[in-house]
Specification:
Helices cover about 30% and strands about 20% of the residues. The protein contains 25 helices and 24 strands.
Length: about 675
């Protein structure tokens, strides 16, 4: 039956959800209403703990056992899903409304082939022969851009990359042609090019099929570029909604305004990001009046007494007593030095030629040998080697923030670990303050740990769950046998990362992602290091927590004269914070130079491709077809292409690129590029 494109395909009216905790009922969704039209993409944004994922799960009635829908209606094509039995609801899930989850590895069974899992989903709803199901699966995989779909059907999830697995989940959902797709943080773990590919895929699906998409994310840049309308949630409530352009250009709720001010952008270089004080209110103890009042710059007495209704403000709706005043204020301005408490400008790092660099890397290589198989042993074949870092030359000036960017699998984390001696180098040298440390013995490296520290990507995985915060931050003192008189107090270490003393007796599981990240930074500061490798310091954090970490890192650099190697795939983050940028591809540095120059006039085609894929909340432009220069995914480092390693994806590649490895060339002061055709690439930019 043809779908009615004139009527909303999904209508949610006054939805409420409560969770039972012991004898108490905690309301986590309050009076949520939304509509979704055929072919429309509606974005849902907000900090962690605002109720976004609960709303998504409620739409498919996939809530936890202790959750209950307390009121409202969820109408899909006019039928109220709350009135269906569980058996009837199973027939609706997947066929009429489907969900794509954040982590494909937890959604795909590692013991079953992709084809068998896709067939199982299809068989649940449709009667067809095995050959027909296979044909449908092949068509779905082809539609989402997976090459060799027949081969992929016979493979297992672990044999595909993260981007491929996310496409497989989307293809699995598309088999049954649902009218509505709910996408819950599906790009949060992807690098910039894979993220852009998934966004373009969703746009094509809505154009070809008329699929309506509810896109849940904490990334304002992604939501601003893909969604037609946007919903802003806070403390289980919709606090603002409307057309994306109207909401993001003239926000009418202080929370929306604060989120936009906190989002990093490479076009707002070295500006202090806005900071939202405090945390999202606990659902167990929501304040009276407006739930955002205690964090709001516009709050007045009425806000603490009376909760504002959601009311229309022109094209948008806002839950704020002073929505007109907030909207009239326009886009948030950068805070002044006085507001930030800064009395002197931050010191600039010394130019590379003025003094010896703090860290100097020459010809660095790091290789890993594959495990020997029984067949390989019988045939007397040596196991292959993976060259994760392959001939890197780099220097980092004192007091500098060097950003290291590239797709997942480029070797960024391995390079950072090798610099610190956490992974042994296969060849080359690393010098720190003039001393060679790459071949140092373990005892010598331990003595250097007070000067060289790392902030790891997963804060909870790097903090012992059995130790309190107090024990964690002072553990380096015990390891290095620092005399009590030379130790910084716990309160002072926590204060340095803007945590109160009440956090000292908490365990890691009692901390939010942002708080755990701060504890990791405090722990690294305990020994007063001079150089810190920060590996994806904002990964997995929502915009307010991420902006707070970025402001903290800049402040700590200025206060303690720190030098950073900032590893990330987030180019907005690097462009905002870094002094210089190094671009890495398949174990090699392809471009390095001043951040402003690299971002304004990228010289290497790979750098251009990364920047073309960036979604910037300051721009709010929809991705154009064909603008993605880096087609496909990064090749395996087990078998890198010959010559220039980027030639398999480069639009400027020639036969020379296939046969000859490009040499590093300094084309301007402190700007180095490794490309045969950098002049042509520069002309493309201009």
């Amino acid at each position: 039956m043809a779908r009615d494109v004139s009527a909303p395909v999904l209508q949610v009216e006054n939805l409420g959800v409560a969770f039972s905790q012991g004898n108490l009922g905690v309301q986590v969704l309050h009076d949520c209403s939304l509509t979704l039209n055929p072919g429309e993409i509606v974005g849902v944004v907000g900090e962690s703990g605002c109720g976004k994922s609960t709303l998504s799960a409620a739409l498919l009635r996939l809530l936890a056992a202790n959750a209950e829908i307390t009121g409202g209606a969820i109408r899909l094509a006019g039928r109220d899903l709350l009135e269906l039995s569980e058996e009837e609801m199973r027939g609706v899930r997947g066929s009429e409304i489907a969900m794509i989850f954040q982590d494909p590895l937890t959604s795909l069974n590692p013991s079953l082939t992709v084809g068998r899992q896709m067939r199982h989903v299809a068989q649940t709803h449709r009667s067809a022969t095995r050959a027909e199901h296979r044909q449908t699966a092949v068509a779905a995989l082809s539609e989402v851009g997976i090459a060799d779909p027949v081969e992929r059907l016979n493979g297992y999830p672990h044999e595909s990359s993260g981007g491929m697995r996310q496409r497989m989940l989307i293809a699995t959902a598309l088999q049954l042609e649902p009218a509505v797709l709910v996408a819950d943080e599906i790009t949060s773990a992807l690098d910039v090019t894979l993220e852009r590919q998934i966004l373009e895929l969703l746009l094509r699906l809505r154009e070809r099929r008329g699929t309506a998409i509810l896109f849940v994310s904490h990334d304002l840049g992604v939501v601003s570029t893909i969604s037609d309308r946007v919903i802003v949630m806070y403390a289980g409530r919709i606090v603002e909604r409307g057309p994306t352009e109207a909401v993001f250009s003239r926000p009418s709720h202080p929370y929306t305004r604060a989120l936009l001010d906190a989002a990093p952008s490479y076009r707002r270089r070295k500006q202090q990001l806005g900071r939202i004080p405090g945390q999202v209110a606990s659902f167990r103890n929501l304040p009276a009046g407006c739930t955002f009042a205690d964090r709001c710059a516009f709050a007045r007495e009425i806000c603490t007494v009376e909760e504002p209704p959601l009311r229309d403000i022109g094209d948008t709706a806002s839950r704020c007593h002073f929505a007109e005043e907030v909207q009239a204020a326009g886009a948030p301005a950068a805070p002044s030095a006085v507001e930030l408490g800064v009395t002197e400008p931050a010191p600039e790092p010394a130019p590379a030629g003025d003094a010896a660099p703090l860290v100097e890397i020459t010809g660095l290589r790091t290789s890993f040998a594959d495990r020997q198989t029984l067949l390989g042993w019988a045939r007397r074949r040596r196991p292959a080697s993976v060259h994760a870092v392959d001939g890197v030359d780099l220097h980092i000036a004192r007091g500098e923030i060097l950003g290291l960017v590239g797709e997942s699998g480029s070797g960024k984390t391995t390079l950072g670990r090798t610099i610190l001696g956490l992974t042994r180098a296969s060849a080359g040298t690393v010098r720190f303050d003039g001393r060679e440390i790459s071949g140092a013995r373990p005892a010598a490296l331990r003595r250097l740990r007070s000067e060289l520290q790392m902030v790891f990507q997963d804060p909870h995985a790097s903090l012992s769950p059995r130790m309190t915060v107090s024990d964690l931050v002072v553990e380096p003192y015990r390891i290095h046998r620092i005399p009590p008189g030379d130790r910084l107090p716990v309160a002072e270490l926590l204060a340095a990362v803007e945590l109160s003393e009440e956090h000292a007796e908490k365990f890691p599981h009692e901390l939010s992602g942002g708080q755990a990240r701060r504890v990791g930074i405090a722990r690294s500061l305990a020994l007063r290091p001079r150089f810190i490798v920060a590996d994806e310091p904002t990964a997995g954090l929502d915009v307010s927590a991420a902006s707070s970490i970025l402001n903290l890192m800049r402040d700590l650099r200025d206060r303690f004269s720190l030098t950073y190697l900032l590893i990330t795939h987030n180019l907005n983050l690097v462009g905002h914070l870094a002094d210089r940028v190094a671009v890495m591809y398949l174990g090699q540095i392809v471009e390095v130079g001043p951040a402003e120059q690299v971002f304004e006039s990228p010289t290497h085609p790979y750098t251009q491709a990364l920047l073309a894929a960036v979604v910037d909340p300051a721009e709010r432009t929809r991705p154009e077809r064909g603008t993605l220069l880096a087609a496909g995914e990064i090749p395996s480092p087990r078998n890198p292409p010959p010559g220039c390693r980027y030639h398999t994806r480069c639009p400027l590649a020639t036969e020379r690129c296939v046969q000859e490895t490009p040499l590093r060339e300094e084309i301007a002061p402190d700007l180095v590029v490794a490309c045969h055709h950098w002049q042509n690439a520069l002309q493309v930019v201009r």
